[in-house]
Write a structure and sequence with these properties.
By secondary structure, the protein is of the alpha+beta class. The chain has two domains: 361 residues, Outer membrane efflux proteins (OEP) (Up-down Bundle); 89 residues, Outer membrane efflux proteins (OEP) (Single Sheet). It has eleven helices and six strands. The strands form two sheets. The protein has a four-stranded antiparallel sheet, with no helix packed on it. A two-stranded parallel sheet has the order 1-4. A hairpin with a 7-residue loop joins strand 5 and strand 6.
Length: 470
């Protein structure tokens, strides 16, 4: 679908985002809605689509080598001149010719020339075919790069969403920890006044409250940074965010994940770049070969002179052009193309290694985060029970104030770690999905019409006329 038709209607866009839960900043937003909003409004993605449409036009430029060129030339010439006659007129009885001695003889001439020239290449050493093939391969490479940009946009949006969700929960945990320690300090101060605890206990309670205050301030700073990134990537953050969930249906093992690596658009783009560079090599080699052109010309001339007034002629012929010496430029271009092919081949191998590394890293991160969630859930539940027990034992004089403070910190740390583990599990699943080349609106089945680059390509590849750039 044409991008202008799909995204230029603001009423349709606002209605869609409203239905998805993003119509106002006070609404609760889901992760899917945030991904859709980023997909529709991200300027990097829009810029890459425009770049791909520019690449589509190169196919028509390369295909032009198969078509004839027809040019018309029209020339008009207006001549105005005069000369003074030096003729010595004779005398005759009764008639004086001396009055014509300064006679001006005017010489005016209007000329018209017209030429219609036709040139059709018959053979260019395979250069036209190579340039067309290279342009088509660059289009496919651009389409793969567009998918890569789409994946990066969706991954950045998912990361910004999860980070904001995580930091909002963490600031809640930090505030709860600060409130618990504030109550503990107040209780310790009362007990100190009654002589039940020592001054050391009071100092420890105050120090733990100071650390809790610092943890809360740091959590606020982290949240401010996450919300700023959210606004940059997606838009103004809403008041509430739904709990995100990891992407389901991920590979069960690394071997299955590696088998899907060829779907990664970065690998496909690297391979297509190599093929396009090879086409450039063929086109450079064609510059060393002869070329054959069919030429024709129609001429018309209207030039008044002593010989003729009108002239029409027609010419047709075949031109053979053989490059004998080009200063070494064509050979240098060929050598350059060959070196570029080798460069891109190595980059393709490096990209394959990088993708396999990313798959291994993120698959392990997903597995580790899933295990960590279970462990931190058990720890947080145990620490909550332990804190209640330590507080009761402290009231009975069986535990010190430090024991209570440690139990409170253990609960805060385990709950915070549980929030981070849940966020890491979601982020790692999106990172693994991107490494597999499956983090697209189509693969995620998001409620939005995907941009189809084939529509513009099919129009541009055979387009002969028109100056529009929409």
């Amino acid at each position: 679908m044409n991008e202008r038709r799909l995204f230029s209607n603001p009423l349709l866009l606002s209605l869609l985002l409203g239905l998805l839960g993003t119509g106002s900043a006070s609404a609760q937003q889901t992760l899917d809605a945030a991904l859709v909003e980023a997909y529709l409004s991200n300027p990097d993605l829009a810029a890459e689509r425009a770049a791909l449409r520019a690449t589509d036009s190169r196919v028509a430029q390369a295909r032009a080598g198969y078509y004839p060129s027809l040019t018309a030339t029209l020339q008009g010439q207006l001549t105005r001149g005069s000369q003074t006659s030096a003729f010595e007129f004779p005398s005759a009885p009764g008639f004086d010719f001396s009055q014509y001695e300064d006679l001006l003889e005017t010489q005016d001439a209007d000329s018209t020339f017209a030429t219609l020239a036709l040139k059709q290449n018959l053979w260019a050493g395979g250069g036209t075919q190579a340039r067309l093939q290279g342009a088509e391969r660059r289009v496919r490479s651009g389409q793969a790069n567009l998918l890569s940009v789409e994946q990066n946009v969706l991954l950045n949006a998912a990361t910004a969403y999860v980070d904001t969700w995580r930091d909002r929960l963490l600031i809640g945990e930090a505030q709860a920890n600060y409130d618990r320690l504030s109550r503990q300090l107040a209780a310790t101060e009362r007990r100190f006044e009654l002589g039940e605890v020592a001054q050391t206990d009071l100092i420890q309670a105050r120090s733990r409250l100071a650390r809790a205050s610092a943890d809360r301030d740091q959590a606020r700073a982290d949240l401010a940074r996450s919300e700023a990134t959210f606004e940059q990537v997606i838009g103004p953050p809403p008041e509430r965010l739904s709990d995100p969930a990891p992407i389901p249906d991920l590979p069960d093992d690394l071997d299955a994940a590696y088998a899907l690596a060829e779907q990664n658009p970065d690998i496909r783009r690297a391979a297509l770049d190599v093929d396009a560079a090879r086409s450039d090599t063929d086109a450079a080699f064609a510059g060393l070969l002869p070329s054959i052109d069919l030429v024709g010309q129609l001429n018309y001339a209207n030039d008044p002179n002593p010989e003729f007034y009108d002239q029409q002629s027609a010419q047709v012929g075949v031109t053979l052009t053989v490059p004998l010496f080009q200063g070494g430029a064509a050979a240098a271009q060929l050598r350059e193309s060959k070196h570029t092919v080798r460069q891109l081949e190595n980059q393709r191998v490096a990209m394959g290694h990088q993708v396999r590394r990313d798959i291994r890293t993120y698959w392990t991160a997903v597995d580790a985060a899933s295990s960590a969630i279970g462990a931190y859930e058990m720890e947080a539940e145990a620490n909550a029970l332990a804190l209640r027990g330590v507080e009761r034992e402290s009231n009975l004089g069986l535990r010190t104030v430090l024991d209570v403070l440690d139990a409170q910190y253990d609960l805060f740390r385990s709950r915070s770690n549980l929030v981070r583990a849940r966020a890491s599990a979601v982020t790692a699943s999106f990172q693994l999905k991107a490494a597999l080349g499956q983090l697209t609106v189509s693969s995620l089945d998001l409620p939005v019409q995907p941009y189809d680059p084939e529509v513009n390509y099919e129009i541009e590849r055979v387009r002969l006329f028109g100056l529009g750039g929409d």
